[in-house]
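Holo prediction. Input below; ligand is manganese (II) ion.
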Amino acid sequence: MSEDKIVVIGHKNPDTDSICSAIAYAYLKNCESGLEPCEEDYKYEAYKVGTISPETIFALDYFQVGEPNNLENAKGRMVVQVDHNGYEQAVDGLQDAIVVEIVDHHKIGTTITNEPIFFLNRKVGCTATLIYEMFLEKEISIPITIAGLMCSAIISDTLLFRSPTCTDRDKIAGLNLADIAGINVDEYAMAMFRAGSDFNGKNIEEIFSTDYKTFNIGNLEYGVGQISCVDKEELETLTVKLLAYMKERIKNSGENMIFMMMTNIIDEYSDFLCIGKNAYEVSIEAFNIDEVLYDSKDRIYLKGVLSRKKQIIPQLTSVLRKRAMTL
Ligand code: MN
Ligand code: MN
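Structure of the complex:
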């Protein structure tokens, strides 16, 4: 690892988009600089921050691409943020780094720069879709491996075009990339999802942390995780274990509310687990539930809900804000 290279990096607790988009964008930027990728003096280098998920490992292995190195701290480095912006989900030390570019599809956060930068943020389902479009725009040909990784990112973020965050642009990008990569997109997606929901050998804390993000509203701290599965029975088993874990966790974690989406990708629903004082009441209000499916006050059935970003966070945040004001 060399200090003079520009870091291309996704968010903490990386998902497939954060890893694959970092690799693809570093490749694109190196091509743009007129450098052969893999050359010693290439300028941009993809990094990860934290452990890579089994789903991402499946994609990297399939296309025989190595894992990016881990970046502990970005202090003093030049950084390109992909699949996130702001400091909340970012690598440590980003406040003391120089952010030179951002390519993202999330709400605008807190990144501060001293100079104008290239900041691309679009309402699409996946960062890799934007990078695919940049490859076309700049007329840079896409190698099979990079196409495969970008396609994996789109499949992952849009749950194979099923998520409400998925746009026509994501679908076009995903299908074209699948063509370039030479994969059958349905078969590949199922294999990747299966790999991603293989929790064998993981303890419950690791499973809980797979895709867990924390948020703050005033003094209120809450977190929302998501576990996606293609197997109904496995999802049920995990639900029971996770509920027990969440009830223990909240005693000491400092979080006021802990939420977990247990998402069934095939049948297109999520069971929403809610632990903490008023967490259930807040959820009932946020999602306009008038008929409950489960008796226990820690679990809500949400039909057609697959996207945390679009179908959970805005609804939850608006109720929590309102409550925070009246506290
Ligand atoms: Mn992401
Ligand atoms: Mn993404």
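The pocket of manganese (II) ion (ligand 1) is lined by residues 11, 15, 17-18, 83 (CB under 6 Å). That is the main takeaway for now.
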